[in-house]
Structure formats: structure tokens, C-alpha cells
Amino acid sequence: MSRPWNLIEASATDDGGRLELFSRTPEWSICIRGKELMNSRAHASEDGMARLAVARLAAASERHVLVGGLGMGFTLRAALGVLGPTDRVTVAELLPAIVAWNRGPLADLAGRPLEDPRTTLRVEDVGRVMRDGVGAFDAILLDVDNGPDGLVVPSNDLLYGPAGLATARRALRPGGVLAVWSAHPSDPFTRRLNRAGFRAEVRTMRGAPGNKGPTHTVWFAT
């Protein structure tokens, strides 16, 4: 018999949804409208996305990476782990409750990455951060929702459509990398990336350590 989940905190979203934080020691889960957005046992693919995106960047000082979606902090921590001491990371998170939980009950899961001096937090939509930052980023890591075709929040569709991809391309410096995490594969999204002027590479990664867990899809677009 599986152990029951305990509801730790809940928060209403602006669009009328309900964001919930659950725990069954040592596991954590964040759900919205009853659908799981993330689980602390399955972040290997997010870690891999961050490491491989940074590995594609040219060696330089003061590189600037944008992480779209704070989640439980794992993508941010993985990026910080492979960046240098003079590099910077901006993380954009739309939901204040996610930020509060990362500073509270979830803080130690990823080693408190919000406290790293290289981290800048912006509590706003990542699309707006990209629009405000033309030519500002060497890499953009999008770990928003369940991916381009697995949307839990319908408004996120704008991020993965032609206009959102054009915004991402303008926000990247020459030679920059757009990395996109998804719970599911999507041939239409690959084609959208190519039409937007990117050269897309598609990788599959397992969600849990040891090449276990669900299979996720990550796009690396240059």
C-alpha cells in the first residue's frame, strides 16, 4: 500500500486555479487543478537540460542564462552548478506561491539556489522577461508547464507558439541556445522551432536517476 500524500499548503492562482504542495517524506509534489506539475523524485531530465545547454555555449566570462520556471529549483541549481563564478542566472517565475515554497519548505531540496549571489529572481512571466531583454541572454531554459503540447495552464501556449519563439530568438545573443523541456514528444513543435529560424536537436531523457522513470523530451535549438 502506498503512503498517503499530505497537503502542506495551497494557493489560488489569478486564473481561478488551485496550486497545491503535497509531501510524503521524503517526496514532494506540486499540482495545479489536480494535475501534477512536478515531483521531487523526477528531475534528472531537467538537470540534464541545464547541463547540456550550458555545455553548448562558447567559453566566455559573464555569460547570462535565463531560466523560465522555478519549479522546485532543480533546473536553476543544475545551471549554477556548471556555470562559472562570473556568470549570471535570471530565473522568472510567475507564481508567488512557488517562490515562497522555494524559500520555505522546499528550500533545501536543491540546495537553496535562490540564495546564490549569481541568481536574480523576477516574479513575472518569462515571456515578458524575454521581451524586455533583446540580445540579453546566452541561453534560455524553458521548463514551463508540462511542455509545448502538455499544457496545464492554457495561457502558456503563447510561449511556445510562433510569436513566443520569435521573442526567444530576439532575446538570445548570437550563438545562443534555447532549451525546452517537455513531458511529451512533439513533432509539430520541432517544426515550429525550425520555421522560427532555429536549428533544433531533439533529445530524450529519463526523469529519474539511473536512467529510470518517465521519458521526457528536451529540445536544444540554436
For the structure shown, list the relevant keywords:
4-stranded antiparallel sheet, globular, Rossmann fold, alpha/beta
Strand order of the largest sheet: 7-6-5-8-9-11-10
CATH topological fold name: Rossmann fold
With helices defined by DSSP (H or I, 4 residues minimum), what is the helix count?
A: 7
CATH top level assignment:
Alpha Beta
Low-confidence stretches: none
Query: Given the C-alpha coordinates, what overall shape results?
Result: globular
Question: TL;DR of this structure?
Answer:
This protein has 222 residues and is an alpha/beta fold.
Characterization of this structure:
By secondary structure, this protein is of the alpha/beta class. It has a single domain, classed as Vaccinia Virus protein VP39 (Rossmann fold), CATH 3.40.50.150. It has seven helices and eleven strands. The chain has helices at 44-55, 74-82, 96-103, 126-132, 157-160, 162-171, 187-195; strands spanning 6-12, 18-24, 27-32, 35-39, 64-68, 88-92, 119-122, 137-142, 172-182, 200-208, 212-221. Strands 7-6-5-8-9-11-10 form a seven-stranded mixed β-sheet. A four-stranded antiparallel β-sheet has the order 1-2-3-4, with no helix packed on it. The model has no long low-confidence stretch (mean pLDDT 93).
